[in-house]
Amino acid sequence: MDDGDEEGGRVVFAEQRNLASAEKTSLISVGVDIGSSTSHLVFSRLKMEQRDGQYLAVEREVIYDSDIFLTPYTDQKTIDSEKLGEFISGQYGSAQIRSDEVDTGAIILTGLAVRKENARAIGELFALETGKFVSVSAGDKMEATMAALGSGALVNSREIGVNVMNVDIGGGTTKIAICAKGKIVGLTAVDIGARVIAFDKNKVITKIEETGHFFAQEAGLNLSSGTAITTADCEKIAECMASRLEEIIALRVPSSQDEPLYRLKPIDWRGEIDALTFSGGVSEFIYDYEKRSFGDLGPFLAHAIHRRVEQTGYRIMPPVENIRATVVGASQYTIQLTGTTIIVSDETLLPLRNIPVIKPTFNLDQSEIIQKDISEAVTDGLHRLEQTDGKQPVAICFDWFGSASYKRIENFLSGVVIGLTKHFKNNHPLILVCEGDIGKTLGTHAEEEMSLKVPIISVDGITLREFDYIDIGRVMIASGAVPVVIKSLLFPGEQ
Fold this sequence. Notes:
- The protein has helices at residues 81-95, 119-129, 140-151, 153-159, 210-218, 231-249, 283-286, 298-312, 371-384, 406-419, 421-425, 439-449; strands at 9-14, 24-34, 38-51, 54-65, 69-70, 73-75, 78-79, 104-109, 133-138, 164-169, 174-180, 183-190, 197-199, 205-208, 275-279, 315-316, 329-337, 343-344, 352-358, 395-398, 430-434, 456-460, 468-472, 482-490.
- By secondary structure, the chain is of the alpha+beta class.
- It folds into 3 domains: 9-138, Nucleotidyltransferase, domain 5 (2-Layer Sandwich), CATH 3.30.420; 153-316, Nucleotidyltransferase, domain 5 (2-Layer Sandwich); 338-490.
- It has an 8-stranded mixed β-sheet. Strands 1, 2, 3, 4, 5, 8 and 9 form a 7-stranded mixed β-sheet that branches.
- Strand 11 and strand 12 form a beta hairpin.
- The chain is globular.
- The two termini are 31 Å apart.
- Residues 1-21, 128-137 and 327-339 have low confidence and may be disordered.
């Protein structure tokens, strides 16, 4: 994350032990969620099995679920990294797990926390605390998608066949994702959250964000740090927030007054919403899992939202499990690729590590491949994972259908190249990962027919999904094969 970047977060994966010699094994995984209001850890034991050359997580056992810790601040712009460090170290101790015993994991820094001045330092602190971790950035879009996965909204939309809206309400932001038939068809994010105003046990305000001032004024209140806030004040502010969320849930076109609250474009999908799921800290009050006060608007906001949702008649679906466990860890496995179907134009580039996987919605089963459609699909995929700046390499993953004619291959690759224009300007390689047996054909075409000025890595025979990250090792001299490590975020409810 660049200095001054106000959007993004941090997802962190650990290196893992070599699994090549075992058919079955188990890993210790940790999921860490550092939000605007609270922080939380989940330690899990993942049972891994080898299936068709892949090591997959087939069973997960939670071995320690940490206390909920209020994310500490030294002031309104600075997270207290020392206190966070003490918390995470203490939770490792309570779990009786050493950092060197952790095989894999994921750390998410979300919401307003990522906009604080020392967000990068926080990521580095936790990288040190949890062992040899590597990191990639994530933002509102990714958070909205992860919340939909973690709450079970996405899987429910696929298995039950309903349109589910997941509303993830944290301390400073609310992320919304609409899931239909197992796909996300719309998402947005707004500056609405429980901890935009925080107060002590005496109801004296200790912290108020810009959004807190916005809603306080809308409620007819003049509040600032050091002033008292009453229960009635909290209820008024919560009602103003809930009113805005109700408008979003109903998919109404936002007014000009609402526009400053939006962190992403409003949702333009206009289908019917069959059910709602909630995630994030505020949802614990909505589902009546939490009774304690954390010195913020959480209980008030939850009550106001729940009452409005009931009045509208929306069905509220329960979450898959503990709703704070947005990401419970990372499962990893290794695949050996055959050296006969790959192209690596410059072996000095290898190894490459932690390459985010972009899986565009290509329609490759038609007889004609349209270059413009391919480039737009790549661009959309880059937007979903917030990789549009071209600052790091990405892997384009797809499943090839139909013939491998010159015209189809040319149009496909040309579209991919156009979509990755910014990445190539930064001299990043073209990385293609195909599920079908066509890696060498595509790589050869890109290298010889298109005369690309960037290195080309084209591999096949593996299945990836978005939110995967891959390491591509050096070419093995004896076999010509390339080892690929696939790192997949593991969400609640997944086996």
